[in-house]
Design brief:
Keywords: Oxidoreductase
CATH superfamily: NAD(P)-binding Rossmann-like Domain
Strand order of the largest sheet: 3-2-1-4-5-6-7
Number of helices: 9
Order of helices and strands: EHEHEHEHEHHEHHHE
Structural class: alpha/beta
EC number: 1.1.1.36
CATH class: Alpha Beta
Helix content: 40-55%
Shape: globular
GO molecular function: acetoacetyl-CoA reductase activity
Strand content: 15-25%
Largest sheet: 7 strands, parallel
Organism: Amorphus orientalis
Enzyme class: oxidoreductase
CATH architecture: 3-Layer(aba) Sandwich
Bound molecules: NADPH dihydro-nicotinamide-adenine-dinucleotide phosphate
Length: 241
């Protein structure tokens, strides 16, 4: 029987590429999404991948969503915490709502999603948890105090639970993408984007598939000795370690 992989925010952008990549690698994939039903249904029709709507930042909704997925497909053995949002503003103009929405979706989701699956993984002696952070969690980004803080938090979370679960056959790793060509980046004003591309040594935006390939590797048996690591895929824009 094929392993079940759950990809949050798995119906669009980087998440959609991850879902497709894992399906190609032989996993039974469950793709979660927040509210864009039209996009999710189109994704399901195109790929045959099951889609599940719930808010990853709401722990009760996440618990119920995971219970539904496990009942339908079986225990989650690979969890990709990919769902994320931006609500950009400089701190002196940022609202509490902008702060909270970003921290809930990008960081509290790590708890909400991982907590319900971790005991099952520990009992079975196998698990792969792959968390999508960001270049801006590594280097900080003006206008994104909320997002940079949340994504830096994802790295701390990854390192802590990697240590807690290393003896149980569970690996926990983070990926920090640079700027990838998705709806999230399409929301960046054109002039700003031109400036960003000028700072990327490879001279272009990344592709969602280029992040999906890293996820597929981390999920595989070949990556069993990698845990607590932070992988950078950013076209050389920020060389962190
Ligand atoms: P998109 O905006 O293209 O897609 C976001 C996905 O997340 C959608 O499927 C969306 O669902 C889902 N989502 C958003 N909020 C929630 C929520 N509360 N609960 C459940 N699902 C939710 O994002 P990207 O593909 O660009 O980004 C994916 C991840 O990669 C994010 O964590 C992002 O921060 C990170 N990242 C992206 C970079 C980039 O350049 N694009 C760079 C570095 C990191 P729905 O369709 O229903 O809205």
């Amino acid at each position: 029987m094929s392993k079940v992989a759950l990809v949050t925010g798995g119906t669009r952008g980087i998440g959609a590429a991850i879902s497709k990549g894992l399906k190609e690698a032989g996993y039974t994939v469950a793709a979660n999404f927040a509210g864009n039903v039209e996009k999710a249904e189109a994704f399901k029709a195109e790929t045959g991948i099951e889609v599940f709507k719930f808010d990853v930042g709401d722990h009760e909704a996440a618990e119920a969503g995971i219970a539904e997925i496990e009942k339908k497909l079986g225990p989650v053995e690979v969890l990709v915490n990919n769902a994320g949002i931006t609500r950009d503003a400089t701190l002196h103009k940022m609202t509490w709502e902008q702060w909270k929405e970003v921290v809930d979706t990008n960081l509290s989701s790590m708890f909400c999603m991982t907590r319900p699956v971790i005991n099952g993984m520990r009992e079975r002696g196998f698990g792969r948890i792959i968390n999508i952070s960001s270049i801006n969690g590594q280097k900080g980004q003006m206008g994104q105090a909320n997002y940079s803080a949340a994504k830096a938090g994802v790295i701390g979370f990854t390192k802590a639970i990697a240590q807690e679960n290393a003896r149980k056959g569970i690996t926990v790793n983070a990926i920090c993408p640079g700027y990838i060509d998705t709806d999230m980046v399409a929301a960046v004003p054109e002039k700003v984007l031109e400036g960003i591309i000028a700072q990327i040594p490879v001279g272009r935006l990344g592709k969602a598939e280029e992040i999906a390939a890293v996820v597929a590797f981390l999920a595989s048996d070949a990556a069993a000795f990698m845990t607590g690591s932070v992988l950078t895929a950013n076209g050389g824009q920020y060389i962190a370690n």
